[in-house]
Design brief:
By secondary structure, this protein is of the alpha+beta class. The chain is built from 14 helices and 16 strands. The chain has an 8-stranded antiparallel β-sheet, sandwiched between helices. Strands 13-14-15-16 form a 4-stranded antiparallel β-sheet, covered by helices on one side.
Length: 463
């Protein structure tokens, strides 16, 4: 696989889907390693897409809004489980879904569990809402599909209100707080909420296609609810943001260097809402965190992702935090399904480069696995007794463990430790390369002061 093949795949996709222009990027190990530009940013002027071309990324804005909320939480200025009305007094007038409904909390807003009705088409056309108009919706609107906390139901309005939380708690417009807290520290100088101002520079015009005719969509101005989907950015700028997000993995002891602490970045992807499916990927369990979807893909492993769609635009970001990869793509056609390409590019990268662990095994895990390898070589489990937890030989006495080792060795022959893949500090997988196949092992250590082996499973893979 080469980047040339990825560029060709994007070009074919743009032609098949009738997308005027695409800009895409691949981040690996903290830097933009490849950018793809296809087609036209402006059909009428025949202006091509460049890496400097700015696109509106719609709901990909949400995880940045959530991160800004978490930064205020980290400073002790708000609580995620506090009622929204504590920070937005106007919300106190909102009639609850039922008389026995719990209060809507800030966490409900970030996880789409407030009970508000799904509002994608409506929300996409009201980015320019004024503060008074948002107040009126809170005072008179019919917001709820169900009580808070019972189900995941995507709500742009919820994130619009989260923007008001940001404004009120920070004491400055949410746009200013996000710019000062995230954009400026990451040198994202071409990223803004003001799409009308961005149009004065290299900008991707928004298009729709009806009966074979292209026309421009209306560009919604920046407004009170843009925290749900108003950002405009470029490939180099967004690559800086994706690199920052990915830098939060793995968890480690290093000093903090980012604008928001690593633990809070990782919190964006925690499963905070009931699970739901992904179109075209029925075997991929998925749930929403704080502004990011978290999926467990059978091929790719853990995937954090989010789409964006507005009249004239489609976008998607996909990150593989355990591998340090990020893939994102922007298109300038209404609701262009860019996720179809980011998942495909992730699979192309996976096929070309097998997974590698980002973390080294802990000393305790290494010691335990080496002891197991030595016990296999000796044919006696007692050889690893120094690294056993108290339960190990009580659960399966040494005699039965030795019978198992004899059978494995008769099947596979002598072996040597070939690889160790930590799951975390106290668990992992390992492989012994043997004369007639491979010995696969999984191990979990105990939570003692000196962690010992509490579970060990060995499996033969014959050549």
């Amino acid at each position: 696989m080469t980047f040339t093949e990825i560029d060709a795949a994007y070009a074919t996709f743009a032609q098949e889907q009738n997308i005027p222009g695409i800009a895409a990027g691949i981040v690996q190990d903290g830097r933009l390693v490849h950018a793809t530009t296809i087609g036209l940013a402006d059909i009428e002027a025949a202006r091509p897409v460049a890496t400097s071309t700015a696109f509106r990324i719609a709901s990909m804005t949400k995880n940045m809004t959530a991160l800004a909320i978490l930064s205020l939480r980290d400073k002790g200025r708000l609580a995620l489980d506090a009622p929204v009305s504590q920070y937005v007094p106007q919300f106190a007038t909102v009639r609850p879904a039922t008389g026995d409904s719990p209060p809507v909390t800030v966490r409900h807003l970030l996880t789409h569990t407030a009970g508000f009705v799904t509002d994608d088409p409506w929300g996409d056309r009201v980015l320019g809402m004024t503060p008074a108009e948002l107040d009126a919706i809170m005072a008179t609107g019919t917001l709820f599909a169900r009580p808070p906390g019972l189900a995941f139901e995507y709500s742009n309005l919820g994130y619009g209100i989260a923007g008001r939380v940001l404004t009120n708690v920070s004491g400055e417009p949410y746009q200013s707080y996000i710019r000062r807290t995230i954009l400026e520290p990451l040198s994202m100088t071409r990223t803004t909420f003001d799409a009308l101002a961005a149009m004065q520079d290299d900008y991707a015009q928004p298009y729709r296609l009806d009966d074979g005719e292209w026309s421009r969509e209306r560009i919604e101005p920046d407004g009170e609810v843009g925290a749900m989907g108003g950002l405009v950015t470029t490939v180099p700028d967004y690559a800086r943001y994706v690199s920052f997000l990915l830098s939060a993995w793995p968890a480690r002891d290093d000093p903090e260097t980012g604008p928001v602490r690593r633990a809070s970045v990782r919190e964006l992807g925690l499963w905070n809402a009931p699970p739901h499916g992904i179109d075209g990927r029925p075997q991929t369990p998925t749930a929403y965190g704080d502004g990011l979807q978290n999926s467990l893909d059978p091929q790719l492993g853990r995937v954090l992702h989010h789409s964006g769609g507005l009249p004239g635009y489609g976008s998607h970001v996909l990150m593989l935090p355990d591998r340090g990869w990020g893939i994102f793509a922007f298109g300038n056609r209404t609701y262009a399904s860019m996720s179809r390409m980011t998942w495909r590019v992730a699979e192309m990268l996976h096929d070309a480069a097998p997974p590698r662990p980002l973390a080294m095994p802990s000393a305790a895990l290494t010691r335990a696995i080496e002891a197991v390898a030595a016990a296999y070589a000796a044919g006696r489990i007692e050889g690893a007794k120094s690294v056993f937890a108290v339960n190990f030989l009580l659960d399966t006495p040494a005699h039965f463990r030795n019978v198992e080792l004899d059978a494995l060795k008769a099947k596979l022959g002598e072996g040597r430790l070939d690889s160790v893949e930590p799951t975390h500090t106290l668990a992992g997988r390992f492989t012994l390369a043997c004369e007639k196949g491979r010995l696969k092992g999984t191990i979990v250590l105990s939570p003692d002061a000196a962690p010992g082996i509490q579970t060990l499973k060995l499996t033969a893979e014959e050549a």
